[in-house]
Design brief:
CATH superfamily of the largest domain: P-loop containing nucleotide triphosphate hydrolases
CATH class of the largest domain: Alpha Beta
EC number: 3.6.1.-
Radius of gyration: 22 Å
CATH architecture of the largest domain: 3-Layer(aba) Sandwich
CATH topology of the largest domain: Rossmann fold
Subcellular location: Cytoplasm
Family: Belongs to the TRAFAC class YlqF/YawG GTPase family. RsgA subfamily.
Organism: Exiguobacterium indicum
Largest sheet: 6 strands, mixed
Structural class: alpha/beta
Strand content: 25-35%
Low-confidence stretches: 196-208
Number of helices: 8
Number of strands: 13
Pfam families: RsgA_GTPase, RsgA_N
Strand order of the largest sheet: 10-9-8-11-13-12
Distance between the termini: 65 Å
Mean pLDDT: 86
């Protein structure tokens, strides 16, 4: 008896890219697929998180269409994200407000909801502890959700779970901060590879090599490769940075000049708030560095 050939169109979400294939999650299950041959000529590069239309022939899928994206992160390459869980460590490697602010700007500029997850709280000692806890309080004052966690003691892990339900989340952070360990603590069956921190370099190896969307806590989450540094994309402008510091935006209407960049302008409400210690000086310093970085990049290109 000849096997019946099945042909139909389905909609789904790309959850994995591997070896030139796209694994697409549909209501009927996962389908391993290829992209249409003319995508490259048309400048279309499907990524994890893309909503797509598939044509199914027997058990093979061909991506016919990539739907319009709500948002897109270049690094890591992932689309249609509801929230970003920004993982920073309290120790090993040391807490870095500069790196956290860089991640926050990238996420805020894409209008993605950020959540700060502070890992390895069990490793925080009496010397560095007060400064880290002071920073935690300051970020909470701005309005950011900050959850203190430890994959070893499981402190705070269950506070993360309700945030994931019904959302597509991306887990992002520097190499070695404990992203995969946190996911394993949330769902031990994942058994994701982890590695120890290099004592000489103060950072971890990249144990996550591909972006993958995984079902977790009634939502989808992308574990992403970690990064030792993070450059701003070429399409990021100074205005994107200016609007990505919520505490600056909250007072900028009181600036003397409309469109104030909060750098050298007189009558700047942001600078006055920094002097009054109502805005973190580290945030203001990082803001100035980010603005300079984008200005210098514009001059080079």
């Amino acid at each position: 008896m000849t096997e019946q050939r099945i042909e139909e169109n389905r909609e789904g979400t790309i959850i994995r890219l591997q070896g030139g294939f796209y694994d697409v999650m549909t209501p009927e299950g996962e389908v391993r697929s290829r992209a249409r041959g003319n995508f490259r000529k048309r400048g279309i590069s499907p990524v994890v998180g893309d909503e797509v239309v598939l044509h199914i022939e027997s058990e093979t899928g061909y991506i016919l269409e990539v739907k319009e994206r709500d948002n897109f992160l270049v690094r890591p390459p992932v689309a249609n994200i509801d929230q970003a869980l920004l993982v920073v460590s309290a120790a090993e490697p040391d807490f870095s407000a500069h790196l956290l602010d860089r991640f926050l700007v990238l996420i805020e500029a894409k209008e993605i909801q950020p959540v700060i997850l502070l890992t390895k709280m069990d490793l925080l000692d009496e010397v560095k502890g007060p400064a880290v806890r002071e920073a935690i309080a300051a970020y909470r004052k701005i309005g950011y959700t900050v959850i203190e966690t430890s994959s070893e003691t499981l402190t705070g892990v269950e506070q993360v779970r309700p945030l994931l339900a019904g959302k597509t989340s991306v887990l992002a952070g520097q190499s070695g901060v404990g992203k995969s360990s946190l996911l394993n603590a949330l769902e031990p069956s994942l058994d994701l590879e982890t590695s120890a921190i290099s004592k000489s370099l103060g950072r971890g190896r990249h144990t996550t090599r591909h972006v993958t969307l995984m079902p977790l806590a009634e939502g989808l989450i992308a574990d992403t490769p970690g990064f030792s540094n993070l450059d701003f994309p070429y399409d990021m402008e100074i205005e994107d940075v200016r609007w990505s510091f919520p505490e600056f935006v909250a007072v900028q209407d009181d600036c003397k000049y409309r469109g104030c960049l909060h750098l050298n302008e007189p009558g700047c409400a942001v600078k006055e708030a920094v002097e009054a210690q109502e805005i973190m000086s580290s945030r203001y310093e990082n803001y100035g560095m980010f603005i300079d970085e984008i200005k210098n990049r514009a001059r080079r290109y």
